[in-house]
Amino acid sequence: MRLTLALIATPITISLLDDHPPIGRGDVVEIQGPASSGKTHLLYHLLLSCILPPAKSSDHTSSSPANQGTSAIIYDLDFSFDILQFRRLLVKRISCLFPTFGVAEHARLVQASFRRLHIFRPRSQSQLAASLKYLASYHTSRMQENEIGFLAVDSISTFYWPERPPGGANAPLRARESEE
Q: What pTM value is reported for the model?
């Protein structure tokens, strides 16, 4: 299973990666590993880092934290994104980042954060290509108040085997050669 991430906006820093430079604007990162190695959990935390407002916003002197953060887009090609698990992590992270906020403000932050998360579930390579082609239009019409801070494709290899021609990519060439 592969997970490909494309970052578009602000750098994301993860404490376990402190010895490495932050992931920056325009970087493409591929995460590979065996099953149950934490790839999806890492994805959830990267998404949270994008859609949540920075903790420094908790001082009430700037605009509301609910109005900050950037949008995140995930193409869930294998339909494995667990929205309930993601919500649990979101609630926990908000409680840690904004401990002085009350229940109502925490609920408002959860709701505002979810408005910045956009999940697409294309069923074929052509649907994926079309949705990527029209992503700019979608952004303009549906989320114009936030820039896209993160784009993830999980898992990029989902359509490889089902849509691969029988006999491999060179099958038509080999068929022509055998006819001659």
A: 0.73
